[in-house]
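Sanity check

After download, print the first record. It should look like this:
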Amino acid sequence: IIKILGIELLPQKSLWKETDSYPANFLETKIDKGEVDGVVFKRENRKGSLEARMFTVHNSNIEYVKIDTLLRERKLKSQQKPESDVGEWSLYSILSPLLSSTSINRINVDETTMRYIQVTDKGNDEYLLNNFDFWANGFLVDAQTSVNPPLLYSANFGFVADSLVGNMISRNHNVSIKKILLDTDKGVLHIK
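Expected structure tokens:
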């Protein structure tokens, strides 16, 4: 078992100010503990592969911000650069220089708080999921799944969340849902 404590993925906001270049979206994540169980790393013919029985993330706080304003659109149009040969990024394109295949039997994300903020010209819309648990089975990233990836690169997945609260300033709406359950393996969606 591999355990990692105190993981933080933080945006470099000071760099954005220096360069006057803000992304269209960004992620801020703080994770108390991550565990990987049953890890096997193989290297054959200069290609690496990683297999794990289970990957678990405990007590995380995730905030995703999407900036969707007219001012941003105008600025992006004025700064447009010629198209490059790089193409679109994918999970496989990020992992493939090190791992030609990544396989995890089960992924669990437990006890998570998730906040989504959409910045618009009419105000900031904010959605909060408290006590969010996510799972995925049969996670696989390789050359074949990079061409036509299954949803979330998994055979099936699901989540359960208590208390979804949404304050949509731009549309003058509020939403409140007591509980949501989605399980693609069983074909279940419950909203309370």
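If your output differs, re-run the checksum step. Summary of this record's structure: The longest helix spans residues 70-78.
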